């Protein structure tokens, strides 16, 4: 029988953290989850796990909860890349300071390994496909906070002899993702609007290209990161590199799945949005036996079914705009989504 661990997951009310908690719990590990509930949904948290409403920045509380913990998965963040140039303080606090606090607590408790969820934003507008050996090229406060957190993680872990792995997910879709967040999650936003008979909103000409990962395909990569021997110090992109599609094409699939046809509403480009973002999955294939099991269309169908079951929602502007000027999208200034 494989070894059972005591595992702490941050951001457990969130999309990734809640799926991870459920899977690790089903594998027989003892799971503790923390979240400040500023994002995610409280009902994402399974009753089977020990939950604490705690902010990651609260070092003393986090440190106490980490007693006897073997493995830490740090998933909490305000993962709002586009918003980060307009709300840099809030986003840096929850991404960078929160990470430093979690890593400090983990090191003081001598955990065996820390798995950090970074982001493809770390590559910025580098040449595609992005490979892990590329020099990070962060171009906005979200990406800067992710790369800075990676560096602090490596620095503290090397000094204190603690193992770490950096997971680099990209554009994950699926059930439990917040669909009433106006600032991120393009597929969920489009579906939530279309199911209310509202046309999708697209920034720029919609020809920007992305790859989308279905949640289960990310979780199956995160699980072995907990104890697979050859992963210490590795940075690994997780998610597919097939189906590299335009946002216009994503809108077409969403409209087809939701059964609602309307011309997209095109808005000004968002500042610093990367035109084409594609991560190579070669390293994940090699080290984690990565395979894509769910196509983009099937992932959109599952997301649609989730929203349909819960019901559509009004968008919730729960993060304040800190910089409001001519560059700020009017969709956010005027709450048009
Ligand atoms: N979903 C994606 O497409 C994607 C892509 C790349 C990287 N990531 C990374 O994966 C991780 C998980 O993303 P997600 O999509 O599940 O996000 P999410 O917003 O669904 O979940 C994040 C959770 O963190 C919590 N949180 C935020 N700040 C906190 C704080 N200071 N203290 C405690 N809890 C806090 C929120 O309440 C939320 O429940 C993030 O680090 C994100 O940057 C996600």
Short description:
The chain is built from ten helices and 13 strands. The protein is an alpha/beta fold. The protein folds into two domains: 6-172 and 212-238, NAD(P)-binding Rossmann-like Domain (Rossmann fold); 177-210 and 244-276 and 293-333, UDP-galactose 4-epimerase, domain 1 (Alpha-Beta Complex), CATH 3.90.25.
Structural write-up:
Helix 1 crosses helix 6 (215-222), helix 3 (88-108) runs parallel beside helix 4 and helix 7 (247-258) packs across helix 9 (296-310). The mean pLDDT is 97. The chain is α/β, with parallel strands linked by helices and 337 residues long. The protein is globular and about 55 Å long. The protein has a 7-stranded parallel sheet with strand order 3-2-1-4-5-6-11, sandwiched between helices. The protein has helices spanning 15-26, 59-65, 88-108, 141-160, 186-194, 215-222, 247-258, 282-288, 296-310, 330-333; strands spanning 6-10, 30-35, 50-53, 71-74, 113-117, 163-169, 172-173, 201-203, 209-210, 213-214, 235-238, 245-246, 265-267. It contains 10 helices and 13 strands. It has 2 domains: 6-172 and 212-238, NAD(P)-binding Rossmann-like Domain (Rossmann fold, 3-Layer(aba) Sandwich); 177-210 and 244-276 and 293-333, UDP-galactose 4-epimerase, domain 1 (Alpha-Beta Complex), CATH 3.90.25.10. The structure holds nicotinamide-adenine-dinucleotide. Residues 11, 13-17, 35-40, 55-57, 75-79, 94, 98, 117, 119-120, 169-172, 178 line the site of nicotinamide-adenine-dinucleotide.
